[in-house]
Design a protein that fits this description.
With about 450 residues, this protein is α+β, with helices and mostly antiparallel strands. The strands form three sheets. The protein has a six-stranded antiparallel beta barrel. Strands 6-7-8-11-10-9 form a six-stranded antiparallel β-barrel.
Length: about 450
């Protein structure tokens, strides 16, 4: 009797045990399931919050302060001078030091741009635009307080290269339109359509074969010089709101300003902006046999409004010298093979400067390169400007400010080994440009 009872008992307890076990795992499963649901809901709320609530927005401020340990120099008044460039870069680096480190988490500080360096009896006055990104829900007053506090703290605890007078510091919130107007007073600056600074260009391709420009506003000084009825003939570079620089040889066949138009934008059709030509000034000494002094100025009948898509390039100081093998960029609507068709989309190529000595070698251009010319490309060929790029820009990036160092002029065919592109050396013509335009 005992035995079956024992068996029954044991059997019963095993079933009970299995049932408990089952219940235990059911509750674990339920807990995991609930946790997973909670986690998914949490992540979803997080994502929604990130895009809806934490949507970052740009905030712009105009800061002004006195610096007492430097003396004003005449050339600080000339924005394209080497003195202005060097001093403003030092100031911009200092602004990064002040703001970058003190913001916890992602850096809220984007960039600063010096607008003006003016004389003051105790040194100089600095006017600088500051750009930040904050959640769109933040108030300008709140951000202003944070910026002011960070600035004052830095003056106390940081070893800064310039002595800033604390009581002179003022900070004013400005809207994006005002910011753009202030920045537009500077040359050689590239912005994305959302007013963010454009990253450095990296194309290593040639215009022949190369890549289309990535973004609108990447080369905002690039223009297309067109003959009415015959379309694109040459490139040109915007140097003020009415003047462009191009090559003299573009006008070999037609010098009648009424028959030319200028367009801007990354495509020839449709253009972003279109203007008539008022005046064409060809260098008096242009020689179509030697290609010497291949430079011309074009004035539009009405000014263009600077924007993210249309912007002037800086003219380099006549003293600026680029070392051989310096990276420079050439852009244009020119053909991608010798004697090929014009391209509707703007193209770009990174090339390197080549010394005149090397370029004048017997196996290269055998003494044809004069002091007003500049060679750029690669000795092995492959990357080059080509037909239709003529008159267009060769630009150099000095700490996010772009300078026009060359004008596409000539070359033996395109992208051949030991036959690099030859450009008009813009620094040689700085005084000529000033004498004709006042720029
Ligand atoms: C041209 O005919 C031309 N490879 C422009 C540039 C170069 C050659 C020819 C440079 O307009």
């Amino acid at each position: 009797m005992y035995a079956p009872l024992e068996f029954e008992d044991a059997h019963y307890s095993q079933i009970e045990y299995q049932r408990k076990q089952q219940q235990y795992w059911d509750s674990i499963r339920l807990a995991i399931f609930t946790l997973a649901i909670v986690a998914i809901i949490g992540i979803a709320i997080g994502i929604v919050a990130h895009f809806v609530v934490e949507d970052d927005k740009s905030f712009y401020f105009l800061a002004s302060y006195k610096v007492t340990n430097i003396k004003y120099r005449e050339n600080y008044g000339i924005r394209t001078s080497r003195e202005f460039a060097e001093r403003s870069h030092q100031i911009e680096r200092m602004m990064s030091r002040i703001f970058r480190r003190d913001f916890p988490g992602s850096s809220r500080f984007i960039k600063s741009h010096v607008i003006k360096i003016s004389p003051d009896e105790h040194g100089v006055n600095i006017l600088v635009v500051l750009m930040f990104r904050y959640p769109s829900t933040s108030s300008t007053a709140q951000i202003k307080k944070i910026i002011e506090n960070t600035f004052y703290q830095s003056l106390k605890i940081k070893q800064l290269p310039l002595t800033i007078s604390k009581p002179s510091f003022t900070l004013t919130s400005i809207d994006s339109k005002k910011m753009r107007n202030l920045l537009n007073s500077r040359c050689g600056i590239r912005m994305t359509p959302s007013n963010m600074p454009l990253p450095a260009s990296s194309s290593t391709q040639r215009i022949v074969q190369g890549r289309q420009t990535a973004m609108e506003g990447e080369w905002p000084w690039q223009a297309s010089l067109q003959l009415i009825g015959a379309g694109h003939q040459c490139g040109a570079s915007l140097i003020s709101n009415t003047w462009l620089l191009t090559a003299a040889h573009c006008f070999r066949r037609n010098k009648n300003s009424h028959q030319w138009i200028i367009t801007f934008g990354t495509t020839i059709i449709p253009p972003a902006v279109k203007r008539n030509v008022g005046k064409i000034i060809i260098h008096e000494k242009y020689d179509n046999k030697t290609n010497e002094h291949d430079i011309a100025l074009v004035q539009m009948t009405s000014r263009v409004e600077f924007s993210n898509v249309v912007q002037r390039v800086c003219l380099p100081d006549s003293s600026i010298k680029l070392r051989p093998k310096t990276s420079v960029f050439v852009t244009g609507f020119g053909s991608i093979v010798d004697d090929g068709p014009i391209q509707n989309n703007l193209r770009q190529a990174r090339v390197e400067t080549i010394s005149t000595d090397v370029c004048n070698r017997k196996d290269v251009y055998d003494g044809m390169i004069t002091s007003g010319m500049l060679c750029a490309g690669f000795m092995e060929g492959k990357v080059d400007a080509c037909k239709g790029d003529s008159g267009g820009p060769l630009v150099y990036d000095n700490r996010d400010i772009w300078y026009l160092v060359g004008i596409v002029s000539w070359g033996q065919s395109c992208a051949l080994p030991k036959k690099p592109g030859v450009y008009t050396r813009v620094t040689q013509y700085r005084a000529w440009i000033a004498s004709k335009t006042g720029i």
